[in-house]
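Lab notebook page, bench 4
Experiment: in silico fold of construct C2
Operator: M.H.
Input chain length: 159 residues
Purpose: comparison with the prior construct
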Amino acid sequence: MFDRPIPRRSFLAALPVALVACSGGGGESRAVAASPPSLRVFKSPSCGCCNAWIDHLREAGFEIEATDVADTTPIARRLGVPDSLRSCHTAEIDGYAIEGHVPAADIRRLLAERPDAAGLAVPGMPVGSPGMEIGERRDPYQVLLISRDGSASRVFSQY
């Protein structure tokens, strides 16, 4: 069919087009896969770090529905977040709780892996976590995976 080999650069340039053409899915399945994940965020109306975290998530491609509330405690408890893992805001995505300044990459990983868990938490407000940037300072912190009944947690990632 070809009298000479295809140059590597031409092959690599055409590869994404070929993969899309051969994916076999209908337009509807592609549209669903392309829609950005949506989070419902419950936060204090006066908290600047919550707004900075929301900006971090929007920059990472998440759609955000933010709701100001006087107290996020009832929402966090309904979602299975123990008081010991609380922070300044609580979010919900696809059945999971997201408590505090959880990085967007960890939320994406949670949604990709789909563990049997209540969600993720970054307890407190560690400096250097998304929304808590203060100059060049970065304190170490952990993102915790919360068990479904809220009785235990384990390290999901560390920074």
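Observations: Residues 9 and 15 are 10 Å apart (CA to CA). The mean pLDDT is 83.
Next step: discuss at group meeting.
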